[in-house]
Each structure stands twice: as structure tokens, then as C-alpha cells.
Design brief:
about 120 residues, minor pseudopilin epsh fold, 3-stranded antiparallel beta sheet, 3 strands, globular
């Protein structure tokens, strides 16, 4: 998340998403499912796994993807209650849906390039 940048995935990121999930909507659904399944506080990650493919998973609290699955983060969404409580009244699903409007896909592409190398 950073001001500016592309509002949809770049070609290389979209190709990787399509290869791993089928399409962007299915990837977003996987992120949402992981976010809603995370009990309590944590993060949902779109990351490049050891197999060099994109994957979605969540971690609890401040835990990072490096420790658990050796994945390299490309995108992260904060699903701690402080991220959405005031504006979305504890409606995590609504927060996740709206959150996609803040993603800078140029930054995601930079992260993806580093992670996939």
C-alpha cells in the first residue's frame, strides 16, 4: 500500500496470479477466505512459495511468512482488529473487500520480481 501506482495487476503479476489461482477474482477470494478464517489478529499474505508459485496464507499476530513456509511476501493485508474496527465496525469481510482499492500494483510487481528471482 502506497499512494499512486497501478490500480490493477501488471502483466507479469496477473500472469502469475492466473497461473496459481485461475484469475484475479479467485485470488482475491482466497485472500478473503484466509482473512476471515484467521481467528484473532494477524496477516494474510500473497507470497511466492518455495516452488516459485504464488500462494495465499495467513499468519497469527506478528508472525512472518519466512518463518513458517519459507515464502517471500509480495502483498500483505493487516487483519488485526485495529485496521478495521472504527471504520468498518468489526466487519472484517467488508474491510477486506474495500482494502483492494488501496493496493499499489506497481509496488506489488516490484515485490514479485524480487521474490520470484
Amino acid at each position: 500500500m502506497t499512494p499512486g501506482g497501478a490500480t490493477s495487476p501488471t502483466e507479469d503479476v496477473k500472469a502469475a496470479i492466473d497461473g496459481a489461482f485461475g484469475d484475479v477474482d479467485k485470488m482475491k477470494a482466497a485472500v478473503k477466505q484466509a482473512g476471515l478464517a484467521r481467528f484473532g489478529s494477524g496477516w494474510v499474505w500473497l507470497a511466492v512459495g518455495k516452488d516459485k508459485k504464488l500462494t495465499v496464507f495467513s499468519t497469527a499476530n506478528q508472525d512472518t511468512p519466512h518463518v513458517y513456509v519459507g515464502a517471500k511476501p509480495v502483498l500483505a493485508i493487516d487483519v488485526w482488529e485495529h485496521a478495521y474496527y472504527l471504520k468498518h465496525q468489526s466487519k472484517r469481510a467488508d474491510y477486506i473487500d474495500i482494502w483492494w482499492n488501496t493496493v499499489n500494483w506497481d509496488r506489488v510487481a516490484e515485490n514479485f520480481k524480487k521474490a520470484a528471482a
